Structures are given as structure tokens and as C-alpha cells.
Amino acid sequence: MTSLTTSPSDSLWVRRFAWLLAGVFVFRLGFMLLFTANMDLAGDEAYYWDWGRRPDWGYFSKPPMIGWLMGLVGWLTGNAEWGIRLAPLIFGTATLAVLFALARRLFGAATAFLAALLILLTPANTGLNLFFTIDAPLLLCWSLALLLFWFALDKPTCLWRWAALALTIGLGTLSKQMMLAFPGLMIAFVLTSKPDRHLLRNVPFWASMLIGTAFITPVLWWNTQHEWITLEHTKHHFETKSLSFSKWLSRTLEFPAVQALVYSPITYAALLVVLFYSVKHWSRMDRRAHYLIRFSAPALLGFFSLSLRQKINPNWPAVFYVPAFILLAAWFTGQLPFVARPFWKTWSLRVGATIVALAHLVLLIVFFTDLKGHKKLNEMRGWAETGIQAGQFLDRVPRPENTFVLATGYRYDAAQLAFTMPQHPRTYRWERSGRVLSQYEVWPGPEERIGDDALIFKNGNAEPRPLFAPLTQRFEKIESLGRVEVKLGEGNTRIFDVFLGHKLLSWEKPGTPKPKALSTEH
User: Fold this and answer.
1) What does the pLDDT read at residue 486?
2) Strand partners, 479
């Protein structure tokens, strides 16, 4: 076996990478098909799929790209589950190819191969290629923007490079708000990099950022029409509450612990070490390393600081690990001014490979044993059967053309019913609090179906219970039709009580201000 620290020709390492990428793609394609045959869509995937049926310039919590992509995938594959799962695999494979191209441009193909291998051997990358969420298009756009910005730095007179960068920033901005950080990092790099400071007088440099960020304009316009709902939702991520010291410590330590899990423990530790030593030896590092450090270390440090005051979702800092992995590979291949002990590379690869292999093995065991009913997996099981049973109720309603589907539970219930029922009905949701808590409350609700009947699905328990009184009062009468019951494993059953609401009388859209009593105060 050839050592990864040797230096054969670039073409050899490019061929090795091509074989690696092809082999991984084929393996993941086969595993994805097996996974799809045994597990249903995750709640977010079904939710975003429902977005795709109503393309718009914005949605409750996200910019529109994931909805557009879901709509395109649904149109191309006939709303097939394998199609939704194939999309992240294509995005993930393209992202890895772009990262290889960037690392090769910076440090050569041998280092690029190792960077790709280190990324492949993380649970985070496995999940990225299996679940279709907003992170798949974001990471592709971010990685491509890193490559194009470096190209533009090398040849700032080439307008197409700046134009391609502007388009990539724009598409990334439509994918996730995090992309808006990229132009800021571009400015910070140019300001602090003496060889590149002349770009402050470069018109295409500024134009690429302005044009790229301008893609957010229609999203902002959409929000003005919907009471800035996306901003309101985003603000909730930064709310804090008072905690005891023990709970604060537990929450704070949770962030690095989860990061170590998703990026593999030894690899994660190595990432922190190489970033620390890179900053420590800053004056000895060259422009290539400075580029990667500036696009990773400050932001990651910022997330560590933020974790001291609030909970951090594991995927938030994902894009800032991208350049850090390339820097780590450069350290392992001896291209940085400080030497990496063999332990770091050897055990990063060994532990990463072991964890990824075990993750796939555990899933295979789950597929073919009684563990398939474990409560942690119930959310993604049994929805296909649930949809079939629910669809049978819809087939038997007395006024099929004048009957809509209404879910009373969490947003995932409405989304999963919409996806798995054979009729793919437009599904509405009743929010008990009267607040706007999901896209279902942003869209027009049953107020557009006054006079129609409603097939209502309510989360059930062991014993049937009546429908909520405030909902019952909105109909001329309520009729109990039966139950949807799907076994998920030993002692676990998904239950929906099913009702038919005859002739909707009234509906108050969530978030509508209630009338205030007249006041005599001036």
C-alpha cells in the first residue's frame, strides 16, 4: 500500500480520487436504496417536500432553494422517495469533487486525496449524503465559492471568475442564511492579506459580493408580505434562559461533544490542534494556509463562544470545517511549518473508518432484526403504511371533491400524511395555540374551504378520545370514522384517530390579532 505522505504525480492521485469517488458513490447508492426500502423520509424531508409543491420566494424558516429543489426532484421522479434520497448523494458527491479541486489547487493532489478521505470518514458526511436538507446545497455552494474566490484571487482580471463567484454566493444565499457570512469573510481576508489588499480597489471584487448578496432581495420582499416570519423564527434560535451552573455546564459541554461525534473524535481533536498551532505559528504560515485559517478559525471560535450562552445546533458551523479539513490534510502531508506526529493521521483514519463502518453495520442490523422498532427510529418508520390506511379513509368520504385533509399534531404529521397518502392531498394543520409555528400556518388555511368537509387526523392513544372542543365547534357536526394503527415494533404503535368534520363553518387564521375591547384612555 502506497503511503499517503509520498508524492507520486498529480495525475496518479487524481485517478485514485476518481476511483475512490466512484466506488463511494456506488456503495452509497446501493446503501441508499436499501435504506429507502426500510426507512421512510425524515420529518424535515417530508416537510420540505411539501414546500416543493408550492414554489415561492420564501418559507417559514428557510430561504426557498430547498423547496425549489424538492419540487424539481418530485417532478423528475414522480415524487419517489428514492429520488429525494438520490439528490443529497449527488450534491454530496459534487461537494467532495469541488473540495478535492480546491485542495489540489492549494497543496497538490496527494493532499487533496487525503482531505477527501478524512471528510468521507466522518458520520457527518454520511448523513449529508443520505438526508436531503438545506445543508446539502449550502455546503456545495460554500465549497464552490471557496474554490472560485481563490481562482479570482489568482487572476483578478478574469471577469468570468468573479461572475461565477457572484452566482455561487447568490445560490448559496437562497439555500441558507449562513451563506451571507461568505462576503464578510471575503472582505476580512482581503483587508488582512497584504498581497491581496489591492483588491479593495477592484470593482469586480465588490460587484461579486453585491450581486451575490442581492439574491436575498426577493426573500426579503416575501418576508415583508408575511410579517418577517423568517426573521422572527431565526430570532428564537438566539433566545437564552437562566440555568443552574450544572445545567449550563452540561449544555456548554454538549457542543464540543456532539461535534466530536459527528466529525469523529480523533479527527475532531486533530482539527482543533492544527487550527491552534496554525494561529500560534501565524507568521510562518504562507498565503494558502492563511486563506484556510481565515475562513475557519474565527467563525469556529465564535461558535464556541456562543455555546457559552445558548444551545448550538450541530450543523450550524458545518461550512467552517470545510477549509479546516484541507488544512488538516496539509499538516498530515508535511506542508505546514510544524510537524504532525504519525499518531494523528493514523488514528484519525482508523477511528473514522471504524465509526463509519459501525454506523452502516448498525443500520443493517436494525433493518433485519427486531431492533427496527426501537423508539429512536420510530419517527422514520411505518409512514408508508400509515399513508395507505389514511388514504383508504379519504377514498370513502361522501363528498371527495369537497373534502380536505386536516392534521392536529406536529408539522411532521401533516407533511408525512401529505407525502405518503396515495392521493398526495393538500394537507392543512390546526395549531392549538393559535400562533404561526410552521409553514402550514403561513399558507392559506381552511378558511379557503368554508362549507367543505374535513378528514381530520388526531394523534391517538391506547383508548380513543374525542376531538378537541375548539376544533369541533368549527364544524356543523363531527363524526368518528375509526383509527389508523401501524405497528412500529414491540410495544410501539403509531395511532391516529380519524374524524369527519361536516361542513366547515368558520376558521380563524393563526396569528390573526383578536379584537380588542374599546378603551376610554387617550
Assistant:
1) 94
2) 500
Cβ 207 vs Cβ 162: under 8 Å: yes
Cα(271)–Cα(281) distance, integer angstroms: 15
- How far is 195 from 490, CA to CA, in rounded Å? 65
pLDDT on residue 1: 35
| 8 A C-beta contact, residue 136 and residue 128 | yes
- The CA-based dihedral angle spanning residues 13, 15, 20, 23, taken in that order and rounded to the nearest 10 degrees: -170
**Which has the closest alpha carbon to 459: 481, 441, 483, 437?**
483
Within 8 A by CB and 6+ apart from 120, the residues are 20, 24, 96, 356
Q: Which grid coordinates belong to 70?
A: 424538492
Which string of DSSP letters, residue by residue, matches 285-338? Answer: --HHHHHHHHTTHHHHHHHHHHTTTS---TTTTHHHHHHHHHHHHHHHTT-SSS
CA 45 vs. chain centroid, Å, equals: 9
Q: What is the pTM of this model?
A: 0.93
**Predicted local distance difference test score (pLDDT) of residue 375:** 64
What totals of helices (H) and strands (E) does the chain contain, helices first? 22, 5
Gap between the Cα atoms of 460 and 495, Å rounded: 5
188: three-class secondary structure by DSSP: helix
Grid coordinates representing 190 are 482581503
How far apart are the C-alpha atoms of 207 and 405, rounded to whole Å? 48
Distance between CA 53 and CA 448 in Å, rounded? 18
Q: What is the mean pLDDT of each run of 10 residues along the chain (522 residues)?
A: 53 96 98 94 96 96 97 96 97 98 97 98 96 97 98 96 98 97 98 96 97 97 94 82 87 94 97 97 96 97 93 94 98 95 96 96 81 68 95 96 96 97 96 93 95 96 90 96 89 92 93 43 37
pLDDT of residue 237: 78
Per-residue CA distances from 237 to 48, 78, 230, 310 (Å):
20, 35, 11, 9
pLDDT score at 8: 57
Residue type, 440: Y
Per-residue pLDDT, 233: 86
Residues 69 and 87 sit within 8 Å (Cβ to Cβ): yes
Task: Report d(CA 64, CA 134) in Å as an integer.
Answer: 10
Q: How far apart are the C-alpha atoms of 460 and 483, rounded to whole Å?
A: 8
DSSP 8-class letter at 390? H
Angle at 117 between CA 354 and CA 334, to 5 degrees: 110
Q: Which residue has the cell 390579532?
A: 513
CB 438 within 8 A of CB 459: no
Q: Where are the alpha helices (DSSP H) in 63-202?
A: 65-77, 81-107, 109-120, 123-128, 135-154, 159-173, 181-192
